[in-house]
């Protein structure tokens, strides 16, 4: 009987995020009469895509036992760099060069990867704790974002037809009634799931997070794996910088402030263990939906921003506590299974 209870509890713990999502949708459907309207659902989907893409990168980082606090600042920096390139171009030797939107997108994605590479090198080569390393780059990126325009905003970013640099707004528009960010989120999620579960690299990421020493002894280049996951995180953050700038048609140095917390919350809610070694992309997707529904639902219900921050903090703590409970129960069930075999 006790064994059956443990199995039931484990099933509930594994499906906790999906259960919470259903309960939240039901609750806000009654609490806010317009919650299930098409416009509202489109808005929620747009925000879920932003949190979700950030969380995809964060998932890989947390699986290895790390953390990336710089992603929110990367969003702001990429937005400012992209806005500046489109609105002002790049002046070299007295000559101004204007880049096409595809070129700007590629350059910004490379910037995100570069920042991730720097984070990874600091962590692996200089042996700086991930929390401290990414905290430092968080401040550096935010400072650079402000320096780009002395704290000013790039507004009405549209480009110029004669210069061939229009079209950024496509990343922020709706395609067939669905935000473009949702499509990008879906594509990146599929690629992330394939990478994590269907490739040797994915297994190496899980192995490093599960037991780095054993992974090294088995021939896995743990440092390369860690550098890679931070580059993935920077890549995802750069996409958000581009999408957010396109949606607003403007770039502000403070964009993305605090978004790393939403990414961490979505990842942990989705079942990725803060201790490393386990996590799924599907879980992260559901976690992103939970965060999106909570944030937009509370806003529609008139909950103040101060209380929203408190609730988000409690959600993160609760998610970690539940994760630890699940790990303890798994260890207990494994011990019981071994005892039964004796």
Provide a descriptive summary of the structure in words.
The chain has 342 residues and is mostly helical. The chain has one domain: ABC transporter involved in vitamin B12 uptake, BtuC. It is 72% helix and 3% strand. The chain contains 13 helices and four strands. The strands form two sheets. Strands 1-2 form a two-stranded antiparallel ribbon. Strands 3-4 form a two-stranded antiparallel ribbon. Helix 11 packs across helix 12 and helix 11 packs parallel to helix 13. The longest helix has 37 residues. The protein is globular and about 80 Å long.
The computed structural class is mainly alpha
CATH architecture: Orthogonal Bundle
Amount of helix: over 70%
Note the beta-strand portion: under 5%
Q: Looking at the structure, what is the overall shape?
A: globular
How many domains make up the 3D coordinates? 1
| Tally of separate helices | 13
Main beta sheet: strand number and arrangement? 2 strands, antiparallel
SSE run: HHHHEEHHEEHHHHHHH
CATH topological fold name: ABC transporter involved in vitamin B12 uptake, BtuC
Total beta-strand segments = 4
Strand order of the largest sheet: 1-2
Low-confidence residue ranges? none
Mean pLDDT: 90
SSE blueprint and pairings:
Elements lengths: L1 H13 L1 H16 L6 H26 L7 H17 L2 E3 L2 E3 L3 H25 L4 H18 L26 E2 L2 E2 H19 L1 H11 L1 H6 L4 H27 L10 H11 L11 H20 L4 H37 L1
Antiparallel strand pairs: 1-2, 3-4
Helix pairs in contact: 1-13, 2-12, 3-7, 3-10, 3-11, 3-12, 4-5, 4-6, 4-10, 5-6, 5-10, 7-8, 8-10, 11-12, 11-13
Keywords:
ABC transporter involved in vitamin B12 uptake, BtuC; 13 helices; 4 strands; 342 residues; two-stranded antiparallel sheet; mainly alpha
């Amino acid at each position: 009987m006790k064994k059956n209870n443990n199995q039931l509890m484990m099933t509930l713990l594994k499906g906790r995020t999906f259960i919470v999502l259903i309960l939240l949708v039901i609750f806000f459907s009654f609490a806010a009469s317009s919650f299930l309207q098409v416009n509202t659902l489109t808005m929620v989907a747009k925000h879920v895509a932003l949190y979700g893409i950030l969380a995809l990168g964060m998932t890989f980082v947390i699986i290895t036992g790390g953390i990336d606090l710089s992603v929110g600042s990367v969003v702001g920096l990429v937005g400012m760099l992209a806005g500046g390139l489109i609105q002002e171009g790049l002046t070299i030797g007295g000559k101004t060069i204007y880049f096409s939107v595809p070129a700007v997108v590629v350059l910004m994605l490379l910037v995100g990867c570069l920042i991730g590479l720097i984070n990874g090198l600091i962590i692996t080569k200089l042996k700086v704790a991930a929390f401290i390393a990414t905290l430092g780059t968080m401040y550096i990126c935010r400072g650079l974002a402000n320096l780009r325009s002395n704290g000013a905003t790039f507004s009405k970013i549209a480009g110029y037809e004669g210069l061939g640099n229009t079209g950024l707004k496509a990343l922020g528009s709706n395609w067939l009634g669905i935000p473009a960010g949702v499509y990008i989120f879906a594509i990146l999620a599929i690629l992330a799931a394939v990478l994590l579960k269907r490739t040797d690299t994915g297994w190496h990421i899980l192995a490093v997070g599960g037991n780095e020493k054993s992974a090294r002894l088995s021939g896995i280049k743990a440092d390369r794996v860690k550098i890679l996951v931070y580059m993935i995180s920077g890549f995802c953050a750069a996409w958000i910088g581009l999408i957010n700038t396109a949606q607003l048609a403007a770039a502000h140095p403070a964009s993305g402030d605090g978004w790393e917390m939403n990414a961490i919350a979505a990842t942990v809610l989705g079942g990725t263990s803060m201790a490393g070694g386990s996590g799924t992309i599907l879980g992260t997707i559901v976690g992103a939906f939970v965060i999106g529904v909570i944030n937009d639902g509370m806003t529609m219900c008139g909950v103040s921003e101060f209380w929203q921050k408190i609730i988000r903090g409690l959600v993160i703590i609760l998610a970690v506590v539940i994760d630890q409970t699940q790990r303890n129960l798994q260890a207990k069930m494994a011990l019981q299974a071994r005892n039964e075999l004796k």
